[in-house]
Amino acid sequence: DAGVLSKAWYAATCDRKMAEDALYRSNKDGSFLIRKSSGQDSRQPYTLVVFYNRKVYNIPIRFIDSTRQYALGREKSGEERFDSVAEIVENHRRTSLVLIDSQNNTKDSTKLEHIVRVS
């Protein structure tokens, strides 16, 4: 289960719209949660949803079969890989996560600070 089931930030029954609504309501930079990805693809099992600067970012979490590890976003050389989804969260509570807005072609960064629960 990638170490997500018992975590406060894991929204097991949440879809994209519910996640985005909950983050807009929180209205705090660095608010986040993790949900199951919409596509139900084993190579991209989860999505990290982050609120920053009045925008919600949906960042895919990929599962890398060959190393049994996880990584964020599209595959790139020299990417950070993690042994669990929980490690991704722990890492980005300490170090900033780069947020890329593909529509406006802008880059921001924030740490994962506020866990949002979907009710």
Automatic annotation (TrEMBL):
One of its GO terms (cellular component) is cytoplasm. GO terms for biological process: cell surface receptor protein tyrosine kinase signaling pathway; intracellular signal transduction. Pfam families: SH2. Residues 9-116 form the SH2 domain. It comes from the Eukaryota. InterPro entries: Immunoreceptor_sig_adapters (IPR051751), SH2 (IPR000980), SH2_dom_sf (IPR036860). Keywords: SH2 domain. This is BLNK protein. It comes from Cisticola juncidis.
